[in-house]
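Interim report, section 4.2 (structural modelling).
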Amino acid sequence: MSIGVYGSVRPSDVSVNDISIFYNYTASREIESNTMYSLTASDVLTTLTLPTDQQVSGEENILEGLYNLTLPATIFNAVGIYTLYIKPTTVNATIVDCGVLAALPTTKGILINSNLLPEGLRANNALQGYRIEYINTDGTKLRNVVRYVVTANKAVPISVNVGNTSQRAQRYTFDDTGSLLFLQLTPSSASDVKPNVSPYIGTPGTKILISNTFFSPLTIEIEMVENTINTVMSIIAGNQIKDVSNGILTYYDQDNQILKQFNLYELKDSVTNVPLYEVKEERSNIDETQNFDEITGSVGTV
Amino acid sequence: MEYLKKIIQQAVTTGTTTGCTNCAVIIPDTGVTYNIKFCLTSDSHDLGFFNTYDYSGITGTTISTVPYIVTGTTTSMLNQIKKYAVTPYVINQYFLSNNYLIDGLDLARSGLVGQTNVTGFTNYNVYYYVGGITYLQLSGTTGTTVFQLIGQAFSSANFVNRPILKDENKENMTGKPIIGSDVFIVRQEFSVFERNYNLEFIRNLAQLETYAGGAYFNIVNNA
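Predicted structure of the assembly:
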């Protein structure tokens, strides 16, 4: 029995600038297509706002969690399957050094050049909660290893004396004038049973991927179809006109727009002129004179 | 990770073609957009307790301490400025003040100047000050009092405005570490009433020095 609980899943209020969108297209499930393309999230994603009567003057009034995705038909125009992958943005960086703080030698961290980061990530602790993943020296990704940024503070190197010897060591101290960011990662503490071995947090020169953790990734599969149940119903039970003079059969949708058009004709025996087949053949060229409103609008007029 | 499936009907329009009069072909309409609503959620986890970086070279970010007014309601605090006086008149029953930094009843703001024979606050909006906080007890009420103070927020010494970090030496701690100022060695002690150590068994001075772990006892003759 608990005396107090809290929920940890909340509607995300992530900025669209922190979202990356990728997509893939395949004409059918029988075709393997692994080519990915990207969309600019700020072009196709918008946040929604509260209803007008619930808005507070002077505030952004966003409705957390709900987003609108606008897919332009200039891209999404083919019948088939589009798979959209919506994930947190990732920034590439390189570990400049792995060091400890001069004042707290047990506090380990990695250092990266803040000037190479997007401007919004350069401030102290702007990277807190971000996920760090590593690239191996051969370019492959170090799979299944993630670390999370606990603190991120601007730091500068200083040289300190080590113990009672004349040796000196380069360590770091927090200083807002520094261009390096000292990132503490978790897990980085040594295990109780193996206190001399610390978890891997990276090595100098290692390339890393920095991703935000503002929302959980999402995949949307969009099946672009030619017909839905509505068009089927329109063909079965909707308006249609058969032009007796030229044998064109036209089906219309609920707005009386042409859905399909067919040529109706008979095949006859060339000698006996006896009908052999009745053919219904779809037309690729649509006869636009078969306009439902114009044809039916003339009914009753001379 | 969530996986959504949507079916969208392809929007079409007619395009021009050649070879026939009044003819067109059905083609995808590229002038439209398809809209989908979806929800994004985030899963929050606690990073735990942090320490502040209290070392030289860092002064923290200066936070502007613009004073601001805080108001609200409370119960009457008049009894805190009341003095012992055998008189029925209120201007003699309370400490007086005309400055919010000095505790007391403000006669001028309360409209009590010269009201030497007033015996109650029923018809007055009473202003008084306690500890730098201005209180207003509204006319005709004794339960509702409005307070007003000048907030200073981050000027409080209880706030530490320094960089934060995780001090691994302090992880997994749930309280302050216990530091002993002395090293104690527990010496063996025996009860004086143990049979083997009764005085009658002591035969020499060395035995007496180690008697009962070297402890000393006062022997009181209470016969």
